[in-house]
Design a protein that fits this description.
This protein is an alpha/beta fold and about 400 residues long. It is built from eleven helices and 20 strands. The strands form five sheets. It has an eight-stranded mixed β-sheet, with helices on both faces. It has a four-stranded antiparallel β-sheet with strand order 13-18-20-19, sandwiched between helices. A four-stranded antiparallel β-sheet has the order 15-16-14-17, with helices on one face. The longest helix is centred in the N-terminal third of the chain and has 25 residues. It is globular, with a radius of gyration of 23 Å. The structure holds adenosine-5'-diphosphate (ADP), aspartic acid and magnesium ion. Adenosine-5'-diphosphate binds next to loops.
Amino acid sequence: MLIVKKFGGSSVADKERIYNVAKRCIEDYQKGNDVVVVLSAMGKTTDGLLALAKDINPEPSRRELDMLLATGEQTSTALMSMAMGALGVPSISLNAFQAAMHTSSRYGNARFKKIDARRIRHELENRKIVIVTGFQGVNKYDDITTLGRGGSDTTAVALASALHADACEIYTDVEGVYTADPRIVPNAKKIPEITYDEMLELATLGAKVLHNRSVEMAKKYGVQLVVRSSMNNAEGTIVREETDMESMLVSGVAVDKNTARIAVFGVKDTPGIAFKIFDLLAKHQINVDVILQSIGREGTKDISFTVARDDAEETVAILEKNKSRITARRIEMNDTVAKVSIVGAGMQSNPGVASRMFEALYNVGINIRMIATSEIRITVLINEEDVEKAMRAVHDQFIED
Ligand code: ADP
Ligand code: ASP
Ligand code: MG
């Protein structure tokens, strides 16, 4: 069997944990399997590197930032190979350049385009454990790129697909995918199996246990994933196209604090205004999420929407600059909001799910600022300070023992 095993930052945070991971990988290797290991940077290394950069230059070049961030994964993979060496097992660490992991050019948010797996295959044929840096790639300028925070999961799936691996295992600091972040909702339950579609919604809506792009890619290439703990042998969560279980009304609750609300007041109630606003933002590569438009009165209307918090200031600046073109009277930004979402394939055929969610929030006195829905999710925008209370209330409403 060819197995891809990915370990996150907390799983390789110190010497003891590095050895723990090395031993788990060696077990599979000694059973005769080919083992490819993908690692994140140790502990909170990436945060530390980001802080270093911001201290030198608050607006560092994106190219140089990726050059810097990529060192975290190079450190952990080299140390892992040294640990395996100390345990007497042949291994080799490879960075994105050496493993020929080609991405788009976009620094900080690159996407995989092509992986030339020859080097990895060659090392496997020589019976080495191959340890590959997560989170990074190489673009057409031969520059290092990174995939966005949490991107090592995507490296693992990309390699599993390129190598036609028999298994792709994501090891982390919880035992699998839960019905909510177990750190916020202590009675959250482990989900034995979940579909790609539900997992993709959860990941996109803030459940950072898997990078959303990794789920997108797993679905596209049919890579079955298992999410489990690096600390014990508990059974984890299987992510695949269809599950054997009857679809749950609500399979999980997710929260995303990385959001800000922008309100544009008093625009003309005529055709083309929404187009002008969102076209401006699209041209600046700003992603817009929940959108709300008021009913027109006295010839004007208000449009509000959410963007990622990092994009909020730029969004306001762009709109202010084009204020007369978009006919706005006033533009407001609020970055103390958060999104809480419920996801479940069973929602499609069950009316009343939204009202039950709103009831749960009403019961704990939480005001809803915006609402968005799709076939399998409902998202509400609330004040950030209410997040934990909201998560618990909504979770208890839908997920019983
Ligand atoms: P790693 O470093 O292993 O990639 P992450 O910190 O990226 O780990 O992801 C694991 C974390 O995701 C958990 O510690 C947990 O707090 C958080 N999390 C958020 N939502 C969920 C969920 N639905 N199920 C499990 N964990 C979740
Ligand atoms: N080290 C990177 C991060 O902290 C990638 C990852 O952990 O997946 O975002
Ligand atoms: Mg992660």
